[in-house]
């Protein structure tokens, strides 16, 4: 196990941000913390990265205790923060050079290593521009390059694609996938985008209100919901009657339609439609991680950027040098 | 504990940022020049102290003031750095907190020294009696004073978390440090309650040394001035290293 936590807890005053967390992460896996804003994902990562002291409990990263041996932990990890953290008055290459000095990458290999990571994230043409003129996606790529330049045992990615446009997001996903394959690095990422967790992670821990609700791989998580989703648009649905059907796992009515989880949709859809009576439309879709989240918490993972978008934060960072 | 390469890395970042922020460089010269030329020559027409014109008398004080503002501002700027993630990148690096502190501190001293250098040259141009030896001695004094003041700023900045505190520091730290330092007046002629406050202010000793170097008017013995500045700097550097070690994220 490259990361283990033992009742890891963080309180801010009376508010418990992370509540007795116990997770084990294996070497080489891509592990996802999925949950809504405020679920405690960033707090968890901050504790694992030694920049936030746990209130109680403990955690080990690469065999070192985060509270007792912070500098050993620091040399084992790389981090891509949620907020932009490159110096916008330095060029991409200069940002990497300073990072190399801080992480004591030997002078002889520094130049080569910088060249490698720059080409890995495809920034060869722009490496000598100040990062102020970079797009959000380019900054993110630079931060990825920086995070893995010193070959950390674990790379933490805190909301790696927050606020990026869909196309850029897919590019970043490609880089992350490539990295996990080529560098065989353990990665821990937080996200509130279900498709991101689905796409990248070997195992996903769904977090809500400081606790892990459920932890498994994506396929098993979806199985736990118990079938596929059928959405029927209809007037006055008889929920009781629908729920009594043997192949129906659950049924909820939601703004003028009924969302039903049914087993073996290929065989049972016809039966369902015969029983429910008059409908306006029908939609069948596979279970998503959002359904898993709703299944366990009764709430949705809202995709909103309540803390301000990536660009808002870049703007703010520019005002403050 | 102190890792030279990490200090250099942190300093290099600060220095490059400084050189590329021309607004910051320019704005740091404007107010001292106004003080010196407008205030100094306005009052200087009617006042003279220790046999020199007021403009010449306050020159060391204006140098100290410029240094004070640049240094403490630089230090408390990390209130903003902390809100964003610039500082986090350095704080998660496997580098001792004292190295980060010293690198940051030297970055601030560099800003202050660039400013001092230009103001000293300006001093020569407006007829302040500076010889090459006093020029270099003044730079040394200014450097030591800036170590003390940047460290003070960093200690304050790393212990304050909200941006409103910035104004508090300006009103309750920077202005009092300036007014009670003898930068604008002769400390020996003050009423006792006022001179007591002045003696508690570390900046007083920097101003005194500087006035001794430039105008040959010095109240305290040189060894006392240096001792106070050095001891104050060491205490601040120690406090700063401790504060950097405790610095945490807000979530």
The main sheet of chain B comes to: 2 strands, antiparallel
Tell me what portion of residues of chain A adopts beta-strand conformation.
25-35%
Total of helices of chain B: 11
Structural class of chain B: mainly alpha
Subcellular location (chain A): Cell membrane
GO molecular function, one term (chain A): ATP binding
Domain ABC transporter (chain A): 3-234
Main location (chain A): membrane
Characterization of the model:
The complex is a heterodimer of chains A (321) and B (251). Chain A is of the alpha/beta class and 321 residues long. Chain A has 12 helices and 15 strands. Chain A folds into 2 domains: 3-217, Rossmann fold (3-Layer(aba) Sandwich), CATH 3.40.50; 227-286, Lrp/AsnC effector binding domain/regulation of amino acid metabolism (RAM) domain (Alpha-Beta Plaits). In chain A, the strands form 3 sheets. Chain A has a 6-stranded mixed beta sheet with strand order 7-8-9-4-10-11, sandwiched between helices. In chain A, strands 1, 2, 3, 5 and 6 form a 5-stranded antiparallel beta sheet that branches. Chain A has a 4-stranded antiparallel beta sheet with strand order 13-14-12-15. In chain A, helix 5 (136-148) packs parallel to helix 6. The longest helix of chain A is centred in the middle third of the chain and has 17 residues, at 166-182. Chain A is elongated. The two termini of chain A are 41 Å apart. Helices cover 78% and strands 2% of the residues of chain B. Chain B has a two-stranded antiparallel sheet. Chain B is built from 11 helices and 2 strands; from the N terminus they run H-H-E-E-H-H-H-H-H-H-H-H-H. By secondary structure, chain B is mainly alpha-helical. The interface between A and B is medium-sized, with 39 and 31 residues.
């Amino acid at each position: 196990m490259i990361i283990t936590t033992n009742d890891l807890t963080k309180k801010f005053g009376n508010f418990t941000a992370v509540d007795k967390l116990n997770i084990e992460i294996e070497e080489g896996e891509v592990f996802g913390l999925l949950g809504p804003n405020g679920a405690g994902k960033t707090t968890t990562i901050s504790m694992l990265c030694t920049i936030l002291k746990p209130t109680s409990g403990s955690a080990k990263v690469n065999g070192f205790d985060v509270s007792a041996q912070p500098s050993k932990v620091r040399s084992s990890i790389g981090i891509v923060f949620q907020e932009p953290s490159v110096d916008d008055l330095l060029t991409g290459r200069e940002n990497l050079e300073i990072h190399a000095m801080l992480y004591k990458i030997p002078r002889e290999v520094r130049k080569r290593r910088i060249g490698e990571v720059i080409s890995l994230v495809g920034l060869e043409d722009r490496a000598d521009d100040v990062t102020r003129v970079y797009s959000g996606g380019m900054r993110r790529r630079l931060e990825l390059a920086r995070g893995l330049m010193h070959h950390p045992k674990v790379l933490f990615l805190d909301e790696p694609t927050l606020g990026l446009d869909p196309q850029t997001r897919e590019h970043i996903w490609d880089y992350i996938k490539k990295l996990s394959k080529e560098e065989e690095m353990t990665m821990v990422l937080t996200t509130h985008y279900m498709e991101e967790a689905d796409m990248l992670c070997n195992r996903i821990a769904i977090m809500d209100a400081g606790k892990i609700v459920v932890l498994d791989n994506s396929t098993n998580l979806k199985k736990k919901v118990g079938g596929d989703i059928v959405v029927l648009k209809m007037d006055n649905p008889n929920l009781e009657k629908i729920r009594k059907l043997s192949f129906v796992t659950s049924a909820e009515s939601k703004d003028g339609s009924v969302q039903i989880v049914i087993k073996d949709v290929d065989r049972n859809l016809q039966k369902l439609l015969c029983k429910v009576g008059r409908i306006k439309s029908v939609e069948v879709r596979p279970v998503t991680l959002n359904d898993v989240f709703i299944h366990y918490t009764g709430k949705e993972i809202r995709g909103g950027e309540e803390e301000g978008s990536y660009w808002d934060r870049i703007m703010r960072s520019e005002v403050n040098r | 504990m102190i890792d030279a390469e990490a200090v250099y890395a942190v300093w290099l970042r600060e220095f490059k940022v400084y050189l590329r922020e021309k607004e910051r460089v320019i704005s740091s010269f404007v107010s001292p020049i106004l003080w010196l030329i407008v205030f100094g020559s306005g009052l200087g027409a009617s006042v003279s102290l220790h046999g020199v014109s007021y403009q010449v008398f306050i020159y060391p004080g204006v140098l100290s003031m410029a240094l004070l503002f640049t240094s403490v501002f630089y230090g408390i700027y990390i209130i903003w750095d902390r809100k964003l993630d610039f500082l986090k990148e350095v704080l998660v690096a496997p580098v001792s907190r004292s190295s980060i502190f010293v690198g940051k501190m030297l970055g601030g001293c560099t800003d202050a020294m660039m400013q001092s250098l230009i103001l000293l040259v300006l001093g020569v141009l407006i007829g302040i009696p500076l010889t090459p030896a006093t020029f270099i001695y003044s730079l040394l004094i200014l450097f030591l004073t800036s170590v003390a003041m940047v460290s003070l700023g960093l200690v304050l900045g790393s212990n304050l978390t909200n941006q409103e505190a910035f104004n508090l520091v300006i009103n309750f730290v920077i202005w009092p440090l300036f007014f009670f330092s003898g930068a604008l007046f002769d400390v020996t002629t003050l009423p006792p309650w006022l001179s007591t406050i002045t003696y508690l202010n570390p900046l007083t000793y920097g101003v005194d040394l500087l006035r001794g170097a430039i105008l040959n008017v010095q109240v305290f013995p040189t060894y006392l001035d240096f001792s106070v500045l050095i001891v104050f700097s060491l205490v601040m550097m120690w406090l700063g290293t401790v504060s950097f070690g405790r610095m945490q994220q807000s979530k």
